[in-house]
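Quick one: structure for this chain?
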Amino acid sequence: MSRINTVTHETANSEQKALFDAIQSQLGMVPNFLKVFANSPAALRAFLGLHGIANEGGLDPQTRERIALGLAQQNSCEYCLSAHTAIGRKAGLTAAEIEANRAGTSQDEKAAVAVRFARSLVENMGEVTTAEITEARNAGYSDGEIVEIITHVGMNVLTNMIGKASRVEIDFPKVALKIAA
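Got it. Here's what it folds into:
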């Protein structure tokens, strides 16, 4: 049971209903974490706006999902891990690739750099090294794409915190976190 109210279509006010209707029309569902966000329509609009803009960038959908999977595991957010496993599969990621992403890498050499960089941003609170920035550039990421990786890190940390703080009910096929040895 969620520790923060999960707004439903039945309990939503007119502004929340309009947001839910827009989400439903795009996704075919309203994920539970967005129902938690809906407690503050302003916060939900801000997240949806950032999400929409971030997805317009140069990073391909698979790399965005790889980053999300790596961070969900790193930040121990079972909701996000479950959601991004399902979304990652729809984006074409294999089971082996998803496992690699959860471990902080990728089977794709370029994407591995993005996932490692994303996890380093979180681990070091943004204090990455010049060598890490250079590695991203050498892998083929432009400065714009490096900024997009940072943006996706921020967006995923936000959703990881919502998922963990609220303990929202997982409405995707549940994927268990791996416990560090």
